[in-house]
Amino acid sequence: MSLATVLADPAIESAAESGILSAAGVALGYAQPGAVPHRILQDFSLELQAGEIVALLGPSGVGKSSLLRVLAGLQQPLDGQIRLRGRPLNGPAPDVGFVFQDPCLLPWLTLEENVAFGLDFRHQPRLEDALRRQRVRQAIAEVGLTHALTRYPDELSGGMAQRAALARSLARAPEILLLDEPFSALDEVTRSEMQTLLLEISARHHAAAILVTHDIDEALLLADRILLLGGQPGRVIGQWLPDRSHPRDETDPHLTALRVEILHALRAARPPKSNLAT
């Protein structure tokens, strides 16, 4: 029996419980003057459970980052619906945090001010100053940056900047973290430290996460569920459940076998080079 599980299997669909974030029949794309919209991704469905980490793998141009923006309420899908706690998600929600590949820190603000900026959420009442300061300081302490409160972004290393970006999301006490290749630009040691930090935060707060990554090993070490996107337009073509508790050993034969299978599936999912999109 294959280690992969195809999402079309009705046994998997019937076993899924109602999640804190759900996507049903989601399609992504862009309009074309005088023509039907060009579809990048279609028929995407997901039930994200509390505390679950889901990794999205797939070739470039398949719509992973665009999908994450839709799940965050930053972009509207062509078709389908996103629900947060059973209610339609029609825009950004304060309990969904987003961490980009670029930390996106404002250069004229200190680290503490950048983290506090994440609390200035439109259509939400401003927190009292004492609670606001407590939230910010607690989030900064969680990522180990209390010593750098007054530093500016150009005084931070790459790893520190990404920790600050994570703290900015944590200050909002999100139920869900959406992460778009947040560790890809870091050196190997710093990346490993950030991966461990993510697992600790997810476990401590029982926060769910969806992680876009090109790194199969990262997906295997972090995710409870791995989804592979492929095709034109893209769709979910496979699912893997590592079925190992954290922390995981990358030399585990089970994970090694999964890695080989996912790599073969990923190679098969790659479109011709001439068709690659951004």
Question: What can you see in these coordinates?
Answer:
The protein has 278 residues and is an alpha/beta fold. The chain has 2 domains: 10-95 and 175-273, P-loop containing nucleotide triphosphate hydrolases (Rossmann fold), CATH 3.40.50; 105-173, no CATH class. It is built from 8 helices and 10 strands. The strands form 2 sheets. A 6-stranded mixed β-sheet has the order 6-7-8-3-9-10, with helices on both faces. Strands 2-1-4-5 form a 4-stranded antiparallel β-sheet, with helices on one face. Strand 4 (79-84) and strand 5 form a beta hairpin. The protein is globular and about 50 Å long. The model is unreliable at 1-16 (pLDDT under 50).
Total count of domains: 2
Oligomer: single chain
Low-confidence stretches: 1-16
Annotated CATH architecture of the largest domain: 3-Layer(aba) Sandwich
Structural class: alpha/beta
Strand order of the largest sheet: 6-7-8-3-9-10
Task: Specify the helix fraction band.
Answer: 25-40%
The number of strands is 10
Overall morphology: globular
Give the topology string: H per helix, E per strand: HEEEHEEEHHHEHEHEEH
Q: For the residues shown, what is the average pLDDT?
A: 88
